[in-house]
Known about the structure:
There is one protein chain. By secondary structure, the protein is α+β, with helices and mostly antiparallel strands. It has 3 domains: 2-258, Beta-galactosidase, Chain A, domain 5, CATH 2.70.98; 269-359 and 367-400, no CATH class; 542-658, no CATH class. Helices cover 32% and strands 29% of the residues. Strands 1-9-10-11-12-19-16-15-14 form a 9-stranded antiparallel β-sheet. Strands 2, 3, 4, 5, 6, 13, 17 and 18 form an 8-stranded antiparallel β-sheet that branches. The protein has a 5-stranded antiparallel β-sheet with strand order 32-33-34-35-36. The longest helix has 20 residues, at 381-400.
Amino acid sequence: MILGRDTCGEWPGAAGHEWLVTNGLGGYACGTVALANTRRYHAFLMASLDPPVARTLLVAKVEVSVAYRGARFALTSNEYADGTVDPNGFVHIESFTLIEGIPTWRYALADALIEQRIFMAPDTHASYLELTVLRASAPLGVAFKPLVSYRDFHDSGHGARPFALEVADAGGARVTVQAFADARPYDLFVEGARFTRLDTWYWNFRHREEAARGLDALEDLYVPGVFTASLSMTAPCVFCASLERESPAPAAVRTALELGARRVKASLPESAPAWIGSLALAAQQFIVRRKAAGTFSVIAGYPWFADWGRDTMIALPGLATALGHHDTAADILRTWLEFVDRGMLPNRFPDGGGAPEYNTADATLWLFHALDEALTAHPDPALARDAFPVLLSIIRAHVAGTRHGIGVDPADGLLRAGESGFALTWMDAKHGDEVFTPRRGKPVEINALWVNALEVTGRLAGELGASADARTCRHLLTQARLGFERFWNAGRGCLYDVIDVEGGGEVDARVRPNQLIAAALPAVQLAPERLRAVLAVCSEELLTSHGLRSLSPREPGYLGRYQGDPRARDAAYHQGTVWSWLLGPYVRVHYRVHGDARLARSFLDPMAQHVAAACMGSISEIFDGDAPHTARGCFAQAWSVAEILRSWLYLERRISDL
């Protein structure tokens, strides 16, 4: 997975590929291979001031230039408001790759070869840019020019503001930056360097990806000064930006990261290709510490999502359980169990902190699936005992009825859900008060998850000797399974998407992938011929190389491009846009139908190319419904990585058993 001059040496290729490193606290560094910030979210140090939320841009980027044999070579690039790209540092990139998950550039400067790496210290808000001389025939010098800010990661900075600087020299140039009186100070440091104060502003950097999304695309950044130092072949030169007063030594950080990456890849089957190793490393980027709870959680996607209940429960089997990280899975499950309220799991924790939001019908039900996967892979009696009372409380709350009209219909044992102004399923796009896919009534995957939840809880009740609770769950399960028969659409040979729409007797027969989510759940008992029919319909109308469309192109309202302003994108989000995470349930159902693990796994092969095509080493959230299925949305999505990784490992085990 190496990009060469044919990609890196031109602006479209260098600006079109991205990279990401994280610190396990919600903080991150990310950017383009060109080292031009094309998003407001690109950063050298994006700190999470209340982990894993309150993400704040501290250092947008570091301009680097090298002096060699009387010439100065810029290693970075910028795009400005009028479209000017300057400097053109990407023309010197000989290659870009990930080495044990660390973004690594090689720059050819005449006969000199310089290697650059960017990485972060785990559990610390500290970013490092390391330069190493691989060959040179004359002395070299380097200049680091940090461009800094202090703003919410969703905003853009405009206009000059006074920044306070404190300059110290303790074995190297150290500058402490404080944006305003109550702001958290942060340090910029280069050992053995000299700092020259500039105290100036650079104007009108252009974020082309924000322009394409119809958002504010310009940014002004402050330059406190420039660090200059000599480069030698004896030791790297490292620029560090840190929110911590004492930062770990860069050599120790890099060594620890490399060792950790090797351990993760060593846990995979020997047959695992390099791209699966990359996904196993990417999976670690989404596991973060939640400071308030003192435990772990899951970031739904970079660069802009925080931790969401639905995404966490869908992703957890792939991010942790399938990789053998059983303690992490148990810790995350325990964290979320504590937040169950009125039988509901939070949908998300707001970016700026505050109370969790309870506005989803499916996040709670995915909890049962994630817990079942964890306990099946690694029996944990203590976790089972602790979780069981919470699971029972959820079942009872759903039978009695809880928020947003979520409750069991006693007539058929199915779950109904819906309230005006809310989108309670994973198809939750809204723009203002406009709900694009309300799906009010009895959605198919919600009821499949309900069946699964009853089966898991009843089985657990039996294992724990709670016979009365086991009988109650079996009774509810029998009723729900009978009710689920109502979803069969004999006319089209597939499952209805929603029945009893808006509380009436109408059905929504549009072909969507939610029926495949339902079919993939282990407790859902579709007859073999019906399972085959569902797979056939989804294969014919929804399947693409990078995932499944959220709506068939044959349906009215299909939108094949996810682009434009926020409303236009929200309207397309679940009306045809391809979701890569859905390849997971697709290949598992394919295997159940055809019994050919190699054939099923072949549907994952195109992801090997994508892992090297957008954000290197990761998988994008969504793609256009129409060819060429351009990657969109978050460039690194937890459930996308998790479901592809989990499904590859699942099928590999079946192949190995042959």
